[in-house]
Specification:
The structure holds two protein chains of two kinds. By secondary structure, chain A is an alpha/beta fold. Chain A has ten helices and 18 strands. In chain A, strands 1, 2, 8, 9, 10, 11, 17 and 18 form an eight-stranded mixed β-sheet that branches. Chain B is of the alpha+beta class. Chain B has a single domain (about 1-85), classed as 2-Layer Sandwich (Folate-binding fold). In chain B, the strands form two sheets. Chain B has a four-stranded antiparallel β-sheet with strand order 3-4-5-6. Chain B has a two-stranded antiparallel sheet with strand order 1-2. The chains are: A alpha/beta, B alpha+beta. Chain A: It comes from Aliiruegeria haliotis. Chain A: Pfam families: DAO. Chain A: It catalyses: sarcosine + (6S)-5,6,7,8-tetrahydrofolate + O2 = (6R)-5,10-methylene-5,6,7,8-tetrahydrofolate + glycine + H2O2; sarcosine + O2 + H2O = formaldehyde + glycine + H2O2.
Chain lengths: ~425, ~90
């Protein structure tokens, strides 16, 4: 069924009884051309672009739980292309362009809202860094505007500009940045892939990867063995466990990142705002909740929940920046499992096993990468060559030391990002 | 999360800095092969379950600790001084 305003009217007049399932619930076939392990944003996007761009429709997405039950439904929904380093810069630029066409391509409202992102700075040094980053973004063809303090006051009148410790000097404004409804992204991609013939297999946990003579031949799952010559691991925080089934150890540590939402309020925060002197970023959802997050808890964790010290830190940072939110009541908090790479940048690459492809290391920035990651991963699987926008996301860069992308400049080692 | 420091007793998470997997207690020799150093610096078991980690009690006694902890439940099962582990 094609979704449209006319369809809403038609279904509304007939009691909304005609809406069908958005995707099928097929039984696993004995073999596929490509198996994508992981039914999150990146896995679903990979399957969608394999079908849509490369005509490879004999594809299965294997998800151990339900579609979109992992990080794609547990993030702060921010979409942006404001990276500074070659490698990251062209990739996120590519991804943002795909976001801008996603709703039309999928015939699905993912509520992509380009409300603008403002990264605040609080010192002369931070202003120089923001100007440099802004220039890098403009060189890439994206948009960036350096705001002074008065321009910030105009756009964000509710911030505490007079605080003596961390006064606000201005911000780097990225107008095309914004947010999207995270669950809808998973659902839209699932529906899009399904309509092109992709089998989405839920409650199908991979328990083994079959390898013969250095080439992948299929996977073992809780719903039986499935054969395929090409298998893609797209499982974010669980990358180390799945790769271990193929005898691989990855340069990945899984950490917890917490996020928070308040009760629904009237519109008050129009943009995405990030604090430069504490780890805090905030936007307001279309439902009215203030959605915000902070830094990692910094210890390895698969618990999908964090501890109170980081909760306290995030609340303190928020109160320092915008004291008005102190009256809002916190509704929920949760944690996601982040696949942290040593340099803070992702991996989209082949492996030493023929037909086995790897997509991981998205750290705490995977949501905005969903279409770009899927698009480039599908290109790699279909053609055997990396997509030009993701060519630097190599698995071997840590071993060779060539092409490390340490966006924060803290060093390409674990526990520094 | 409370971590029982062998020198200070059970102390709040805020006093500690985690340093990930406890690989650094077993540092390769300076002339070890590049693959060995790559393994040591970058590759991790990253277990979902019992894990052996290095923590620093920076806002306490300053000791480096080897902490056995479950990464799924956050339960801490054993804490020993890193110096003692390295001496073994």
């Amino acid at each position: 069924m094609r979704y449209s305003a006319l369809q809403i009217l038609k279904q509304g007049l007939s009691g909304n009884r005609g809406w069908g399932r958005a995707w099928r619930k097929p039984e696993p076939k004995p073999d596929y051309d490509v198996i994508v392990i992981g039914g999150g944003g990146h896995g679903l996007a990979t399957a969608y672009y394999l079908a849509a761009e490369h005509g490879i429709t004999n594809v299965a997405v294997l998800e151990k739980g339900y579609l979109g039950g992992g990080n794609v439904g547990r993030n702060t929904t921010i979409v942006r292309a404001n990276y500074g380093l070659p490698g990251n810069s062209e990739f996120y630029s590519h991804s943002l362009k795909l976001w801008e066409g996603m709703e039309q391509a999928l015939n699905y409202n993912v509520m992509h809202s380009q409300r603008g992102i403002i990264n605040l700075f609080h010192s002369d040094g931070q202003r120089d860094a923001a100007a440099r980053r802004g220039n890098a973004m403009r060189n890439q063809g994206d948009d960036a505007i350096l705001l002074d303090r008065d321009a910030c006051r105009e756009m964000l009148p509710y911030l505490d500009y007079e605080q003596s410790r961390f006064p606000i000097h201005g911000g780097l404004y990225h107008p095309r940045g914004g947010t999207a409804r995270h669950d809808a992204v998973a659902w839209g991609l699932a529906r899009g892939a399904d309509r092109l013939g992709v089998d989405l297999l839920e409650n199908c946990e991979v328990t083994g990867i079959d390898i013969e003579g250095g080439a992948v031949t299929g996977v073992q799952t809780t719903r039986g063995a499935i054969r395929a010559r090409k298998v893609a691991i797209v499982v974010a925080g669980r990358s180390s466990q799945v790769a271990a089934m193929a005898g691989m150890r990855l340069p990945i540590e899984s950490h917890v990142l917490q996020a928070f939402v308040t009760e629904g309020l009237k519109p008050v925060i129009d943009h995405v705002v990030t604090y430069g002197m504490g780890h805090f970023y905030i936007s307001q959802s279309d439902k009215g909740g203030l959605v915000f997050g902070g830094d990692l808890d910094f210890y390895p964790s698969y618990a999908a929940r964090g501890n109170l010290p980081m909760v306290e830190h995030v609340m303190e940072a928020g109160m320092t920046l915008m004291p008005m939110i102190g009256r809002a009541r916190l509704l929920r908090s949760w944690g996601g499992i982040m696949d942290m790479s040593p340099d803070g940048s992702p991996i989209i690459d082949t492996t030493h096993i023929d037909g086995l492809f790897l997509n991981c290391g998205w750290c705490y920035g995977g949501f905005k990468a969903v279409p770009g990651s899927g698009h480039c991963m599908a290109h790699l699987i279909a053609t055997g060559r990396p997509h030009v926008a993701a060519a630097k996301f190599r698995l071997d860069r840590f071993e060779t030391g060539v092409g490390l992308m340490d966006e924060e400049g803290t060093g390409a080692q674990h526990n520094l990002h | 999360m409370l971590i029982p420091c062998p020198l200070c007793g059970p102390r709040d998470l805020r006093e500690f800095t985690p340093k990930g997997a406890a690989v650094t207690v077993d540092r390769p020799a300076a002339d070890a092969a590049p693959e060995v150093w790559h393994d040591y610096l970058h590759l991790r078991d990253n277990p979902a379950g019992p894990s052996r980690e290095l923590w620093w009690h920076g806002v306490g006694c300053g000791a480096w600790l080897v902490v056995d902890r479950d990464t799924v439940t956050h339960e801490v099962t054993s804490v020993v001084l890193a110096g003692e582990v390295a001496a073994e």
